[in-house]
Every structure is written in C-alpha cells, then in structure tokens.
Amino acid sequence: MSTLGERVRALRMERRLQQRQLAENADLTPSMVSQIESGRLTPSLNTLGKIAAALGVPIATLFDGRPAGQISIRLETGDSALLDGGTPHGWDNLGRKPARALWVILG
After folding, report:
1. 4-62: CATH superfamily
2. Is the distance from CB of 95 to CB of 38 less than 8 angstroms?
3. Does residue 100 carry a pLDDT above 80?
4. 3-class secondary structure per residue, the chain
C-alpha cells in the first residue's frame, strides 16, 4: 500500500505540477507539501481538503489506500485474473448487484 504522502506525490506528478505549484494552488508553503510527501508531517483534514481541491480529486482519493495511477480490470462472469502476490492489490464491486468471487491463494 502506498502512504498518504506517496499518493499526494503521485497525483501531483501525474498532473505535471511542481511542489511549489501545488503549494500555491492549495494555499500552503512548498516546505509543507515537501514534508507531507516525505511523510514527515501529518496534515490536518483542512489541509488535505485544500490539497485534494488543488489536485482536482475527491478527498477520499487521498485515503483509499490504493496507489495512484492504479490499473483496473473489469471481469465478467467466468473470467479470472492472476495477480502477483508481491504487488499490492484489491477488488471492488462497482455494480449494484452482489458479487460472488472465489479467491484461490497459492503459497
């Protein structure tokens, strides 16, 4: 799983923003952005709201624990996927119907 700071950094870089630019857009100091990205500072919820707004994402994006730039694979009935156990991964049911899944873990 990526940390909050890593997710902020990845989202900032996806948008080709420098720390200074993100700081300016979020009304923060460049030092604060640097400390958040490096994990040396735990930001307040208010600060996270400013960062999320400056990045153009819902604040939940900073908390969901999934790496920024994730890959999504849609599986239909009968489909399967093989995931490397060393890579962080998870699943979400994006539909309204209950999903049934069988996980096979080989160790």
Report:
1. lambda repressor-like DNA-binding domains (1.10.260.40)
2. no
3. no
4. CCCHHHHHHHHHHHCCCCHHHHHHHHCCCHHHHHHHHHCCCCCCHHHHHHHHHHHCCCHHHHCCCCCCCCCCCCCCCCCCCCCCCCCCCCCCCCCCCCCCCCCCCCC
Q: Six-digit token pair at 96?
A: 């309204």
pLDDT tens-digit readout, 26-77: 999 999 999 999 999 999 989 999 999 999 988 888 886 554 555 666 777 7
pTM of the model: 0.61
